[in-house]
Amino acid sequence: MNNESELNDELRPEYDLRALLKGGVRGKYVAHYRAGANLVLLDPDVARAFPDEAAVNEALRLVIRLGEIQRGQKRDAARAQVS
């Protein structure tokens, strides 16, 4: 190797790319992205509260519904003050 290529190579000699990439699946999540799914990384404490993606979706739908109810109550209260 010449000095220039050694300077541009940031990978340490002890790392073997063949070993690092062994078993990897190219495009593993591409179908999810194409389907419009958003992948999100949950913090470990949050992930422990949800056994699967259905539980996460159910909880988020509840949060959305609670927000809608709260906004509706604020609108109703504002209308009552005007009357």
Sheet bearing the most strands, described?
A: none
Instruction: Give the number of DSSP strands.
Output: 0
Give the N-to-C terminal Cα separation.
83 Å
Strand % is under 5%
Question: Which series of helices and strands comes N to C?
Answer: HHHHH
Please tally the helical runs, counting DSSP H or I stretches of 4 or more residues. Answer: 5
What is the total number of structural domains?
Answer: 1
Structural overview:
The structure is a single chain. This protein has 83 residues and is an all-alpha fold. The chain has one domain. Helices cover 61% and strands 0% of the residues. The model has no long low-confidence stretch (mean pLDDT 81).
In summary, what is this structure?
This protein is mainly alpha-helical and 83 residues long. Helix content is 61%, strand content 0%.
How is the secondary structure organized here?
Elements: H1 3-8, H2 17-21, H3 30-34, H4 44-48, H5 53-82
What tags apply to this protein structure?
83 residues, 5 helices
